[in-house]
Amino acid sequence: MGLEAVTIPMRDLTPHERQLWQEWQGARPQLRSPFFNIGFSDAVASEGSDVAVAKLYEAGRLIGFFPYQRRGGTAYPVGAPMNDYHAVIGDPHTRVTLEDVARLLPTKRLSVNSWIGPDNGPDDDRYLRQSTCQATIGPDGYDMWFEGRRIQHNKYFKDKARSRRGMEAAFGPMRVQIEGANHDMLEQLIHLKSQQYRRTGRHDIFGPKWTRRLLHRLLDGDDSFKASLASLWAGDTLLAMELSLHADGVWHFWFPAYLEIGAKYSPGIWLSMETMRQVCTDGYDEFDYGFSGEAYKKYFCNRSEQVVEAIVGAGDWTDLVRLAAKRPDLAVSIRRRWAAIEASEPRWTGRMVGTILAGRGFMSRIARKESSK
C-alpha cells in the first residue's frame, strides 16, 4: 500500500491529530515559520468554509497534513495568496514530494509559490526555484548581530545613519511602537497597500472581505501565535507601518506600508531594525524577510532557504502562453497574477473582474513601453 490521502474540513481534526500537527511542526526546523502553526490554518478556516486538510497516510499510518483551499479545479495552500510558505506538516522521517501531494488532492492541479520540501520537481522552467532571506540572531543578542552586519556593510549603514539624522531633523525624534489590537491603524495599512497594488497594476488582494477579516482576526491572537503592528514615527508624523506574523521565536515581516512624505529617509529600514531590537528581548531569534529579491535584504540576512514556485497537475494553461510567446518570464508573470486573483477571489465574478482589470493594466504597460521606444 502506497501513499493515500483523506480530505476533511479543518474543523474536523481531532484533538489527537492537532497534537500531532504541533509535535511534527516543532520537530522540523524547516517548519518554524508561523505559517505552519496550526493557528494560521485555524484563522483562515474561521473566515471561510473552503479550508480543507489532506491527511496523508502511508501503509495505513498517518504521516502528515497538508492544509489547502480550493478555487475551481485548483488547490492553493491555506490562506493563499497571503501564505508565504507551504509544505507537508509531517513526520520528520517521511518524504512526501510536491508531486505526491498534487496527485493525492481531489483537484486537477496544485499551485504553490514557495514550497519547502524534498525532491521538488524536475529541473525545468515549470519549477521556478527561488531563495528566501532570514536574519538569524546569535546567542549574543541583537547588538552583536548588528555590529557584525555594520562592519561587513559599513558604507550602507553609514548611509542609513545619515538618513535617520535627516528624518529627525525634518520631523523630530524617531520612535517605533509595536502593538497588538490597533484595528484602526490596521485599516490604514490595508488602505495604503490597496492603493499600492492598484498603482502598480497588481491585483488588490484586500478587495475580498475574507482577507481583511483574516488580518483583523490574527491581530487579536494570543501571545503564542498572532500578528502585531509596528509603526515608525518621527515626532508626531507617521512614516511607516508593518504587519508581522510571529510564533515560536520566528518574526515574519509580512505587509509593509510607507507614507510618501518620508520615503527618502528609508523609514522602512529603521522600522525593521528597531522592531528586531525590541522583540529580541522577548525571545525572537529569527526574522524572516521572505523572498530575497529586493537589494536591501542582503545587508540584513545571514541565512536563506530554497523554495519552489510551480503549478503541478493537469491543464497548466500557462504552458500554452510559454510556447506561444517563447517567453518563460512572461509566462511566470501571467501565472503569478492569475494565482493572486484566483486564490484571493472565492467567487467567479470576482475572478472575472480581476482578470479584466489585470488585462487592461498589462496592455497599458505594453503601450507605454512601445511609446517610449
From TrEMBL:
Domain BioF2-like acetyltransferase: 158-298
SUPFAM superfamilies named in the record: Acyl-CoA N-acyltransferases (Nat) (SSF55729)
InterPro entries: Acyl_CoA_acyltransferase, BioF2-like_GNAT_dom
Pfam families reported for this sequence: Acetyltransf_6 (PF13480)
Protein name: GNAT family N-acetyltransferase
Taxonomic source organism: Brevundimonas terrae
Lineage, highest ranks first: Bacteria, Pseudomonadati, Pseudomonadota, Alphaproteobacteria, Caulobacterales
